[in-house]
Amino acid sequence: MTAVPVSPSLPSFPSAAPPALRAARVPADGMYEGRRTLRRLPEGRPELPYTHLDVVPQGRVIGAEIRGADLTRPLGPAVREELHRALLEWKVLFFRAAHLTSDQQRDFARNWGELETNPLLARGSADDVARFEKGGNAAPTFENVWHADVTFRERPALGAVLQLREVPPVGGDTMWADMAAAYDNLPDAIKARVDDAVAVHDFIPGFARFYGPEQLAPLQDEFPPVTHPVVRTHPETGRRMLFVNTSFTTHIVGMDRAESDRLLGFLVRQAHVPEYQVRWRWRAGDIAFWDNRATQHYAVDDYAPHRRVAERVAISGDRPY
């Protein structure tokens, strides 16, 4: 005879005298357990096959490794179209051992638009190549905080192409979070407060940790504070996404400082939820290509005293709405 498993059950009590629970509560605005909505595609969009690429999922809602695309050569129209669809569907794409030159990396990124420069970052082989050289004797900068790139611009970057030139023997991973999933799972009461809200973004908080006034003051006129919606709409997929981050979002317009700080604290913590994330363990020559409109990312600073060297090319974007 086959044993039938019995599900555990809570003890029952006489209905006339239910036990009383002591008063208890968790702090307000906490993060609670329970099933989350994990929707990778826009509602109603069918899952379509890829015919020119192999797309290998790395997470439930975000992240896919792409195989079968040679990034050292110009992309054909069909391959470029499938890569674009994969970017919209998976938000960040990974390519193992691409080993692109800086020029090849720039050429690949130009398939998605004009490249932007950033005078706040160290320059690589060209003005539109940012170089991140960390570990060893280099000063620690621009790591271990969840953020989207350059949201202090009126038109933040559409996306970025990052290549690891030198990888530490252990550590140095990068994580990405799907901010559409983060929005989907907000409580309805929070959605009602943020759906039409706007927030101020400023470059100074994110860079004042590493640069002095003599370096930042000359750039204040070039990068004045800007406002963006707290919840932006993706211009291609139509999905609603949280668009505030720890590095550059200073306050929500129309709220006093305490209320704004509390609400922003709750919103930026949504990127911390593992179900919305993917984590990439780098090898030298790997490429990551992400949609900066739909994601935030976090470079894990756990590899000192070893070196980690990366180069990034960013693609100019549009004004969020």
Automatic annotation (TrEMBL):
Keyword Oxidoreductase: yes
Annotated TauD/TfdA-like domain residues: 60-312
Any Pfam family matching the protein: TauD
InterPro entries: AtsK-like, TauD-like_sf, TauD/TfdA-like
Keyword Iron-sulfur: no
Single GO term (MF): dioxygenase activity
Keywords: Dioxygenase, Iron, Metal-binding, Oxidoreductase
Family annotation (SUPFAM superfamilies): Clavaminate synthase-like
Family affiliation: Belongs to the TfdA dioxygenase family.
Protein name: Taurine dioxygenase
Lineage: Bacteria, Bacillati, Actinomycetota, Actinomycetes, Kitasatosporales
